[in-house]
Amino acid sequence: MSRKENNTAGILAGLLAGAAAGVILGMLYAPEEGKETRKKIKTKANDLKEEAKNKYGEVSEKVKDQYGNISSTFKETASSVVHTVKDGYDKYKDQIVSKTNDIVKDVESGLNDLKGSDLNDLK
């Protein structure tokens, strides 16, 4: 979860807690019967609980979407890196094989020259 989403979730939780506290205090100081006040508090608490569930669902969906986006971007980047490394490997492998073949030919030529000069020395 990003820092911005953490801040948003924290602010949201603070607002909900503040609203709940304000509603409860307002009802407790209202000139109504205790039974009515408790009923209003219970109703408001249920409303706030539902609102919190909805906000949690929204934040959860945003987090899932962000995870999906990040995951997809990472997979694409990893695939690109693998492709680049493979291309580089193939390129340098071909160069090394070519250079190795040139060296082998030079060594064989040198050995043949040595063999030829040894035979001429014997004559």
UniProtKB/TrEMBL annotation:
Q: Give TM segment ranges.
A: 12-30
Q: Which keywords does this Swiss-Prot/TrEMBL entry list?
A: Membrane, Transmembrane, Transmembrane helix
Q: State one Pfam family annotation.
A: YtxH
Per its UniProt entry, which superkingdom is the organism in? Bacteria
UniProt-recorded name of the protein: YtxH domain-containing protein
- Organism (species): Chryseobacterium gilvum
The organism's lineage?
Bacteria, Pseudomonadati, Bacteroidota, Flavobacteriia, Flavobacteriales
